[in-house]
Amino acid sequence: MSHFASPMTILMVEDNALQRRQIEAQLQPLGHHVLYATNGQEALDQMKVSLPDLVLMDAVMPSMDGFKACEMIKADPRTAEIPVIVLTALSRDAKDRSYAAGADDFIRKPANNLLLQVRVQTHLRIRALAMQAGSPAPARAKVLVVSASSLVRSQVQNHYGKTQATFLEAQGEGQARAQIMINRPDVMVLDTELLEGTAQSLALAVQQAEELKDMPILLLYNPGELETWSRLHEPVADALEKPLVAQETRRRLVLLSRLAHLQKLVQA
Predict the structure, then answer these.
(1) Cβ contact 112:226 at 8 Å
(2) Phi and psi dihedrals of 159, rounded to 5?
(3) Do 100 and 168 fall within a single domain?
(4) Cα radius of gyration rounded to whole Å, the chain
(5) CA neighbor of 17 nearest in space, from 40, 41, 44, 36
(6) Rounded to an integer, what distance in angstroms lies between the CA atom of residue 131 and that of residue 197?
(7) Which domain covers residue 63, as residue numbers?
(8) Do 92 and 67 sit in the same domain of this protein?
(9) Domain count along the chain
(10) How far apart, in whole angstroms, are the C-alpha atoms of residue 7 and residue 33?
């Protein structure tokens, strides 16, 4: 994935000082500017003065909670296009409430380092590219699904919608490399379970190839597997825990298809 021309600005809305420091430490390696607000109203007031590129929003805060603040950000034409990621420890219906309020993404606390970093980077890349390219109509993506499991391969296609993209399949690293060379997919969905080879070596090969390095990768992982990936530098654009849930699979693929499309437009 390409680097940013200059650091972008993240507004972190969090009333707990300890959690602010923890999240800041997780974001620090990305090199962006981080601003702070302690509740939704303070965030809205700050955004009247200067606009961030992304908002990391806690849900439970005094004065104005994150759901209400998210609704107000998305209702204002001046701020509606700024991505909002809700980051909360709330469990019951928090994800549904976040998306209903207009949030662009949702991560449960405590956030896994890699997951938080790749989601933030992907939303910021889309934000930066959209500011250059405008808001083009989505194109039909070419999606390569790499997994040893026929169930996973069919789930990805069914969850996204078989008519929404052109799907290619591979069961292992060798097949995937051949598909990439022949068909040049826009997005790769990479399961950690392959028939031969390893997901990490395939991801690294894509990242290191000049003509492929901008291809977004969605990693499908089992609980506990992300830690081994966090040692790599930005190995994927997004990650999704198995077993797959249709709504979330679709959400992740829509995001990465948009990223791939915007990259093509800007590079053209």
Answers:
(1) yes
(2) -65, -40
(3) no
(4) 18
(5) 36
(6) 39
(7) 9-133
(8) yes
(9) 2
(10) 7
User: Does 186 share its domain with 124?
Assistant: no
pTM of the model: 0.94
Residue 2 lies in a domain: no
Taking the C-alpha atoms of residue 26 and residue 112, their distance in angstroms, rounded to an integer, is 9
Q: Judge if 189 and 110 occupy the same domain.
A: no
Half-sphere exposure (CA, 13 Å, Cβ side) for 47?
28
User: What is the rounded distance in angstroms from the CA atom of residue 254 to the CA atom of residue 192?
Assistant: 21
pLDDT at 3: 61
* φ, ψ at 107 (rounded to 5°): -135, 135
Long-range contacts of 44-47 (CB under 8 A, 24+ apart): 44/69, 44/72, 44/73, 46/11, 47/11, 47/73, 47/79, 47/82
Q: Which of 112, 133, 154 is the last residue of a domain?
A: 133
Residue segments in the chain with a per-residue pLDDT below the cut of 70:
1-3, 135-136
| Strand boundaries in 22-61, DSSP class E | 33-37, 54-57
Those residues with Cβ within 8 angstroms of residue 220's Cβ, 6 or more apart along the chain or in another chain: 147, 152, 156, 189, 190, 191, 192, 239, 240, 241, 242, 244
The whole-number pLDDT of residue 92 equals 76
Identity of residue 83: P
Max Cα–Cα distance, the chain, nearest Å: 56
Distance CA 169, CA 117 (A): 28
Burial 185-203 (b: 16+ CB within 10 A, else e): bbbbbbbbbbeebebbebb
pLDDT at site 1: 41
